[in-house]
Amino acid sequence: MTQILLMGSPNVGKSVFFSAFTGIHVVSSNYAGTTVSYMEGKMALGDKTYSLIDVPGTYTMNANSEAEAIAIQFVKSGPKAIIFVLDATNLEGSLRLALELKEEYNIPTVYALNMTDVADRKGISIDVPLLSKKLGSPVISTIAVKKEGFDELKSLLEETLQNAPEAPAASASAASAASAASCGCSGEFHKDADKDSNKKCCDSNDTASTLNVSQSGEVCFDDAKSIQYWNDAKALAREVTQKSQAKPGRLDRLGDKMVKPWPGIPIALLVIVLSLGIVVGTGKALRAVLILPLINNYIVPFFTNLFTSFIPEGILLNILVGEYGIFVISFEWILGLVIPYVIVFQFVFTFLEDSGYLPRLSVLFDNIMRKLGVQGGSLINIMLAFGCAVPAIIGTRSATTYKERLMVTTMICFSVPCISQLSVLIAMTSDYSFTLFAAVLVSALVIFISVALLANKVFKGKVDPLVIEVPNLLIPNRKAYFKKLWIRIKQFIWEAEGPMLLAVFIAAIFKETGMLDLLAVWLEPLMVGWLGLPGEGVMALILGIVRREMSVAPLLMLNLTAFQMYIGAIVSLLYLPCLSVFGILAKEFNAKTAVGIVLLTTVSALFVGGVINHVGTFIFSLI
Ligand SMILES: Nc1nc2c(ncn2[C@@H]2O[C@H](COP(=O)(O)OP(=O)(O)OP(=O)(O)O)[C@@H](O)[C@H]2O)c(=O)[nH]1
Ligand SMILES: [Mg+2]
């Protein structure tokens, strides 16, 4: 099928266009680097159907990350046409790539001047006819989240395609090939772990191009041609843009303040505490007021009555509705423990993502993150991991060096609990006291810092300076926000339910067939002697292989002391990443890395758990 490519700098709205034009929902969030792979969908124009491709954003045709390399490869593959999305609030930044493509690649293009609502808010007006004349192609003003300008864009695209030459567009012009050759650069991203220059198409010691985006989003490119593009982009943006002298609005002033230490850090602490408070408080309330009464008074009695009415007492009945019965535990653990927190978490996190607050946190915490060996920008992926480690690890494709990818992935696997796991930890620890919950959080932070410092020493390579563009602070579009939320919750249930049910099934079989007792005796030296937990706690280690939250949930059945709960929580925090994470580690890195992380997490979980038990017991004996 004939290909049309969506191109542009990061965070300009490409994925919103893609979702609207193809009907396939892809994630859009208000930070650069949301899309890290490509997505293809069908788009109807008149009586023809085309293949529309959404790719990661890139500032130039020199890849600075694995994600950017994908976009560049698609341009080089010679699409029939390009929909180039420009950001009306940062025209200079988006025109740089537009000019490079126009000059060096002969691909028919239609430009969407997007985010015009935000530009209006900021008092920025752009002379669209003049811009169109200068670019030599149609430019249409759009507000992608409201689908404004889409009809016009589509009809001009259709026209452009009709006038396009029959032969596929040239992949790269002679000029581009020459410039690539002059610096030995093909626009590829080399993910060689052992080299410092593992990321860039050209090493900075060559006549090469080194992309360096400063905190304010200003981009410097040391290559003469590149500098020329930046200058041209700046000049053109200035020529077509008019900015009113009015004071910036409240939202823009707040957005600016959020990246300064004062009042940015107090605001950040407030946002973190408030978010945690909302998730814990609302999740607990939902559980206590609605979900637990529903499960205990209606659902479980219903299934118990149903099965006891026709199944005689014995192992089968116990597997279904006994102490670890599938029709008891699946509701208590999945519906009762996990789902309420996951829903509230997604409400809060999606809002933070779409508002553009996460990159602001990254800027604020850049200094601290740098001391840990990664750049502030990686904080976004680390925070994504609270939702689920899988997209977070995939998201590290936007990292600018291989070391950064590996560091962030390791930190996530060791010390960032996903919300499913966190929800069980919250329920488990807050049943005892808030102090226990706080102790687990502080310990998680200590583990996070220790793992980062250690990984920084072990992994070779380097980490780049902060590469982040601070986006506009936005009030998320209501429709887009709820749609994304709904899709995420649906996706969670769709993907997590199967493995969670499998874990519940394994638990019932192990308990009722006596295998659990057998294992408990067998592993007594480890569970009781070393970790100080009851033998039955081994169930947590077995189920934790399937999913992370299942490495905590079985502990709820065991009447543990607060100290034992603490040990259980720390073991589970450090313990194995779940099966899906293992799969994604093998895919994104290699089997060796996946096995290495699995072994290290397991050994460290058991080691740290045992040390805490013995040191704690010793201290208690002195008191
Ligand atoms: N107010 C407003 N927000 C928009 C508009 N277009 C997109 N957005 C928002 O801008 C953010 C970025 O949109 P994405 O579609 O993720 O941008 P992208 O270009 O695909 O970004 P990358 O994948 O990171 O390159 C999201 O929060 C969108 O909801 C617009 O016209 N107006
Ligand atoms: Mg995108």
Structure description:
The chain contains 26 helices and 10 strands. It has helices spanning 14-22, 66-76, 91-104, 116-121, 128-135, 150-163, 174-182, 224-240, 250-257, 261-310, 315-321, 326-355, 357-364, 366-371, 379-387, 389-395, 402-415, 419-430, 434-458, 478-512, 515-522, 524-530, 538-543, 562-574, 579-588, 591-622; strands at 3-8, 39-45, 48-54, 81-87, 109-114, 124-126, 139-141, 211-213, 219-221, 241-243. Helix 12 packs across helix 18 and helix 16 (389-395) runs parallel beside helix 25. The protein folds into 2 domains: 3-176, Rossmann fold, CATH 3.40.50.300; 261-622, no CATH class. It has a 6-stranded mixed beta sheet with strand order 2-3-1-4-5-7, sandwiched between helices. Strands 6-10 form a two-stranded antiparallel ribbon. 48% of the residues are buried. With 623 residues, it is of the alpha/beta class. Residues 14-15, 34-35 line the site of magnesium ion.
Question: Quick summary of this structure?
Answer:
With 623 residues, the protein is α/β, with parallel strands linked by helices.
List the helices and strands and how they pair.
Layout (H helix, E strand, L loop, with lengths): L2 E6 L5 H9 L16 E7 L2 E7 L11 H11 L4 E7 L3 H14 L4 E6 L1 H6 L2 E3 L1 H8 L3 E3 L8 H14 L10 H9 L28 E3 L5 E3 L2 H17 E3 L6 H8 L3 H50 L4 H7 L4 H30 L1 H8 L1 H6 L7 H9 L1 H7 L6 H14 L3 H12 L3 H25 L19 H35 L2 H8 L1 H7 L7 H6 L18 H13 L4 H10 L2 H32 L1
Parallel strand pairs: 1-3, 1-4, 4-5, 5-7
Antiparallel strand pairs: 2-3, 6-10, 8-9
Magnesium ion binds next to helix 1.
